[in-house]
Amino acid sequence: MNEIVPVVEMTGIAIGFPGVKALDGVDFRLFQGEVHALMGENGAGKSTLIKALTGVYTIDSGTITVLGERKSFTTPAESQAAGISTVYQEVNLCPNLTVEENIMLGREPRRGGKTGRGSIDWKAVRSRTREVLAGLHLDHVEPNSLLASHSIAVQQLIAIARSVEINAKVLILDEPTSSLDAEEVAQLFRVIRELRDKGVAILFVSHFLEQVYEISDRMTVLRNGKLVGEYMTRELSRMSLISKMIGKDMEALAELDNGPAKERTAADASAMPFIEAVGLGRKGSVSGIDLAINPGEVVGLAGLLGAGRTEIARLFFGADKADEGHLKVKGIQEKIRSPRTAIDKRIAFCSEDRKQEGLIGDLSVRDNLILAMQASKGWMRRVPRRVQDELVTEYIEALDIRPANPDALIKNLSGGNQQKVLLARWLVTEPGLLILDEPTRGIDIGAKTQIQKLVNQLAAKGMSILFISSELEEVLRVSDRIAIIKDREKLAEIHNNGVSVEDVMSVIAGGTQ
Amino acid sequence: MKSNAVKDLLKHRLAWPVLALAALLLLNQIFRPDFLALRMQDGHLYGSLIDIMRNGAPTILIALGMTLVIATRGIDLSVGAVVAIAGAASCAYIAASPEPASPSTAAVAVLVAVAAALLLGAWNGFLVSTIGVQPIIATLVLMTAGRGIAQLITGGQIISVSNDHYKAIGAGYLFTLPVSILVTAAVFVATAVLTRRTALGTLIEAVGINPVASRLAGLRSRNIIWIVYVFSAVCAAIAGLMISSNVTAADANNAGLYIEMDAILAVVIGGTSLAGGRYTLVGTVVGAFIIQTLTTTVYTLGIPPEVTLVFKALVVIIVCLLQAPKARKLLGSFRPARQVVVKETPKEKVAA
């Protein structure tokens, strides 16, 4: 028995969704004045555990104790009242309200004494806001400026300021660093450490291993909705953490480190490109893009966020109409006016925005997987059930989609598995060009390797692939050729024969090759 | 175990609408012991159930079309006006034809009404899918203008016709049953087959759930939206034929007045969300029956006319509440506490 009582103690937590067991008998403890990292792959149950603690989900079984008191949360408000505060990846404040309104919303000091029901005392609001902001080194932020006028990093700190204001005992940070740069991360970590030293218990969730090692004192590892164990961060090596997270031996990891060997031979340069863009562009988007992709070739798009990578992909797919230049498919000039015409020309596009642009949430894995194929056949010619079953079974097995239940609603799957279903949606259409926009974003290491391997296999079979990723290492690992995009134009194109990340970075930074 | 089966049954999306309908019928049976009885007279089947089905037929028809429209995140307010136009067009044709009593005149009149509906539905579909007008506004145009068109056709008069073949649509009998019930059943089966045997149903749902993702998956959502609005208008036209044939007259002002509201209500009571997506045709039919049975119940119970609307509203509120996730959760919390799952000791598994 510990002499110190945990701030939060969860035991035997179980939560199930139709067709999916999200959490199964998970224990979790959080102590005062520690930064505790919750680790696991996508679908391991991290988000579910957080949502159980914050009252978004009601637990099926198990107990939650906060400060020694047994709680059963059924709404987020109950959890907040118990002193648990959450800052999500996407800041959930009101962008069109001011900073002070956001921080004090619902608890504004009022005139007319302690039980005052009078009008809001804006002076008090302002001074209190300044106090809180100063505590987080945000003195430069004006309390009456609009929240939206600040960077995401500052907005995140303001969200934390709100939890400080309500005197939260527990602060949950869900992927707080995913859209911050290095300096902003450092600033965030400083604030986290100060809060920790003041005795706040902090639950930290992140995909960035290095950051977890930098900031956390202890970690709890989940896998497939079950508890793997609780460890002190300094006693657990990175390698053993990863192997605990994915439940696999070092072999697979070693493979990841070296990158999947490019087994295929280099694409035949003399062959006719499957697709070729000539001076392709669109007003307000990218311009003058020349890019050819041969059959069996993987071309990577490298560039900073917002450089125009996704825009290029959308022009290739007809999701946006090009207003300058043209596309040639197998040497023939084609007008790609809509996704539908692109699909008819055997072009497929896996969007970076799974939720908005990929998933049909309320439909089953089966219906989602078959959708593009069905759409191109038209509504009258339904893909026969037998064919559906064959395809769905085949891809569930080939891509290791879990749960292996074709009738589970896709919204109940984890991010990585959703991504695999969307990939399968395009693979069943047997495309000549597959455009992958951030196919591994927000998914775990295991699924990531699987997808990278798959890209190699598909190219080996003669498919052309346009691969977009923010992770340069990944682009270098899978691509034969890399087109470097900067400021909405193609800056350079390099063959990937032992090019390093630094080489690419210097091209982007230098502006010339 | 048994209670589990019951619980699973109650979780079914159709459970509460069906229960509500059963309860209403039972209530009637208690007050009028011969309520559920059917009897044969002159080779025709009679009884309250038959009346409910016959009187509810136009609402069911329109609600079927409305279900598909709503599944695409749309709504069709113009169905009442289409009812009026269909009745007006067919009656005007019959009245003006040289042989107003012949079967071929009746047949052409039906075709005229359906053709008008195709045109009107295509107009709605055009506004919604091509121009991108919000469905509620787009169909409001025809809802208002449609009555005017109907009045133009009838010249502001009520046109009476005497054509026995035409009359048969709304008031005739075939195989002991009213023709209107048979027509409605046929449309229901056709709709179910059309949407579930083909991929249309899934694609309609996909467009309703996530239009952006559907477009990127290559769906021609424009076509799908056209189809549902045209289908809705055709359903309304058939209902319009029934209504005008039943009274052998076209009343541009009152035919199908407020029927769009009953139809939308039937869809919602049946369990299809106004937010679009998953739909249930059976639920819609049950919903329409509930609305029609309510009207009958009011007479059975002898509720004074001034209280009728309040009574109707109460039943509708109860059914809607029973379907709301929050209310269901509340009901669910009365169940006995589940056993705590035996905790498994976490094991390290080494994958092959």
Written overview of the protein:
The complex is a heterodimer of chains A (513) and B (352). Chain A folds into two domains: 251 residues, Rossmann fold (3-Layer(aba) Sandwich); 236 residues, P-loop containing nucleotide triphosphate hydrolases (Rossmann fold). Chain A is of the alpha/beta class. Helix content of chain A is 35%, strand content 22%. Chain B is built from 15 helices and six strands. In chain B, strand 4 and strand 5 form a beta hairpin. In chain B, helix 3 packs parallel to helix 8 and helix 13 packs antiparallel against helix 14. The longest helix of chain B has 29 residues. The relative contact order of chain B is 0.18. Classes of the chains: A alpha/beta (513), B mainly alpha (352). Chains A and B meet through strand 1, strand 2, strand 10, helix 11 and helix 13 of A and helix 9 and helix 10 of B.
Sheet with the most strands: spatial strand order of chain B = 1-2
- The total number of structural domains of chain A is 2
Structure class of chain B: mainly alpha
Tally the helices of chain A: 18
- In percent, how helical is the residue content of chain A? 25-40%
Report strand order across the widest sheet of chain A: 6-7-8-3-9-10
How many β-strand stretches of chain B? 6
SS strand fraction of chain B: under 5%
Number of domains of chain B: 1
Oligomer: heterodimer
Instruction: Determine and state the CATH class of the largest domain in chain A.
Output: Alpha Beta
